[in-house]
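Hey everyone, long-time lurker, first post.

I ran two proteins through the pipeline my lab uses and got sequence/structure pairs for each. Pasting them in order. The first:
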Amino acid sequence: MTASPSEAPPPQGLPAGVRAQILATEHWSLLATRSMTWSEVMSRITIHLTVASASLVVLALFAQASGFDTAFKVMAIGLAAAVLVMGTLTQIRVVNASVDDASTILGMNRLRAAYLDLDPGLAPYFITSPHDDQQGLMQTYLMGWPRSTLSHVAGSTSIFLTVVNAIVAGTLGALVADAAGATSLVVVVAGVLCGAGYVAGQLVIGQRSFATPRQESRFPTPGDR
């Protein structure tokens, strides 16, 4: 049976103050790693959106110069494909960062369990969880509020990028169908199918990424053992 924070024996050999200092150092290290990761991810997203915006400007200027002829269609398909590739690579980075972020949160939850081993009286002052299981992870993400995780997931960076990339994928599909001489209905259907397919694919990838078991829970939420 896995020990809970109250049952786990305190570490031996060092004074409580020294142990607290070591735990705090690790805590700040995890916080710094988390901050740097998301700073890098946000920079990647900014670059991606800047390139997407610049592509629209290029297409507008190109259309003014040459009209909506074959050259314009080729240019539009090429730029849409490039933006989609860049967006997909950015989204892969976001998914990886999200998985790493969840592991970081679990690590900090374990540190809170260690703080409670040193002083169980601290428990009423924590709004985040000292448990390193799925329930503890979500309690920390939601900052202790008993709200649904749906809004948390729907408003996430990964879903935002999925929507943006799906719009680009749908546009690319419609452009290819139009360049092939398809009717207006086929062009619309191609765009919708490409966009919906991209969303479905990314949701499956995201679900599999987060469904993969992480490290074994050492401090599970009481009642979830």
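...and the second, right after it:
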Amino acid sequence: MQSNTKTHIIQAALFIITIITTTMAGAEWMFGNIFGFVYDFFFFLIGKQEGQQMPASNKPMGWVEFVQGLQFSIPFLLILTIHEFGHYFVAKAHKIKVTLPYYIPFWFGISQSIGTLGAFIRIKEVVPSRLKFFDIGIAGPLAGFVAALVVLWYGFTHLPPPEYIFNIHPEYARFGLNYPQFVYENPAGNLMLGDNILFWFFKNYVADPARLPHAYEMFHYPYLFAGYLALFFTSLNLIPIGQLDGGHILYGMIGKKRFDVVAPILFGIFAFYAGLGLFRTESFATGSDAMFYEQLLYLAIYIYFLYICFKRAFDNSSNALMISLLIVVGQFAVCYVRPDWNGSVNLLPFVLILGRFLGIRHPDTADNTPLDTPRIILGVVAFLIFVISFSPTPFILIE
């Protein structure tokens, strides 16, 4: 009993801290500034010695902005919580011992973040069957997806007037509503949210075109940004690899023998796409010798990165190295034939987390009874949700 109380206190504390960090992150995205407590400290130490004044644009925001940030943190954490309790209640229904969610606060203090690394529940016993793994795995993303749809629908049907952007960027007001043709003459440094099918649908068929924000300003709208991030993380969770929710779903649908063949192939495709365009033949054909060797060093680091990601998938480490080299050669070949094709380096950290820490394979189950037809259909629906929610290039920084 005492142990349970201690665990609940830890979970409650993590949840409260995560509310604070996501609220701060939401305000930072809305107002394009930071709660620069860490920044202030380092600037105090360095700037004081050099006699510098802190730039006005980096002065920390206050209580008013923090409260505004709740417009991001509440819908975002609501979706995350509904997702996790989808897993929790289905696990309880199957009489599987499981914990309440652990939230993971994560805030930089010197640059923008989203305030959290998500949440997870811990299964405290072996899940005995494919069916139970399937049910527990699919419940979270389905519940979270429905919640994300509600948030996106509300956000796109309750867009503020176009003048709202002047609260975020007062410097735009002197140009009026024609500000894009003046302030984006040099668009470098602006951030865009890469479309997925569902987000594109909402923008084109649900939103009032007269109120739809410019693509470079979309992340200043908290409900839209919260809903977009929810779709992004739902799609990542539905990747059918390892112990992700999608891995549980696919394992339940096709069983261990087929899964152990399919999952490494899917992981290889995912890693191949994420790093596509990172290195090209022209990077080594131009510039000085110093630049050539610098690129060669970066390439060696990248190959080692892939090796680390694939090492757990193979009993023989030489196979992991061979696959890593094949992926790099394939990326060079594709980019040589189609130089306009690019992957998304934003996904590479997730490739590392999945390959090195979460694992590509799935735990065995004692009961391997195949799923019934309704569950198979539900599994197909889950992967359709993945297709319409996945953004090939989720965050686009204009260069």
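Reply from user beta_strand_b:
Welcome! Quick read of the second one: Residues 302 and 328 are 9 Å apart (CA to CA). The first strand starts at residue 102 and ends at 105.
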